[in-house]
Amino acid sequence: MKLNTHLDIDNKLNGKVIELNQNYAKVELITIKTMIADQKGLIHGGFVFCAADYAAMCAVNDPFVVLAKSETKFIAPVKVDDVVVFEAKVIDQNGIKSTVDIEAKVLEKVVFKGVFYTATLDKHVLDI
């Protein structure tokens, strides 16, 4: 399947798609020093959230998908050099609205869970 959304995103900061099917995306984020929040190597949660958002957009896979809201839980810390794998599954679609379930793991440990609510517009959000 071909990726149709967020084609210009920086994969070093947002993760890269490693699997893509209809209503499903798997994104891998390799954490780097740029993402560190403190001297112990803790990764700032914003990078984890960003990769989760990207995974949700890829699962919907429309050029005009945007995030409307999210409900998220940071379950465990992520540190530099961790490889975080995000699985995004569209669990509901109703018109332009989609609900995407996200789970992120480092190895087998769940570090993040969320539900992302998206809208698929009929043109680019900046053209509205």
Task: Report the principal-axis shape.
Answer: globular
Number of helices: 2
Low-confidence stretches: none
How much of the sequence lies in strands comes to: 35-45%
Distance between the termini: 29 Å
What structural class do you assign from the helix and strand content?
A: alpha+beta
Largest sheet: 6 strands, antiparallel
- Order of strands in the sheet with the most strands? 1-2-4-5-6-3
Radius of gyration: 14 Å
Total beta strand runs: 6
Q: Summarize model confidence as the mean pLDDT.
A: 97
Helix/strand order, N-terminal first: HEEHEEEE
Helix content: 10-25%
Short synopsis of the structure:
With 128 residues, the protein is α+β, with helices and mostly antiparallel strands.
What are the defining features of this structure?
globular, 6-stranded antiparallel beta sheet, about 45% strand, 2 helices, about 130 residues, single chain, alpha+beta, about 15% helix
Would you kindly provide a written description of the structure presented here, covering whatever features stand out?
There is one protein chain. This protein is an alpha+beta fold. It is 16% helix and 45% strand. The chain has helices spanning 11-14, 45-60; strands at residues 16-21, 24-30, 65-74, 83-94, 97-106, 109-120. Strands 1-2-4-5-6-3 form a 6-stranded antiparallel sheet. Strand 1 (16-21) and strand 2 (24-30) form a beta hairpin.
Topology:
Elements: H1 11-14, E1 16-21, E2 24-30, H2 45-60, E3 65-74, E4 83-94, E5 97-106, E6 109-120
Antiparallel strand pairs: 1-2, 2-4, 3-6, 4-5, 5-6
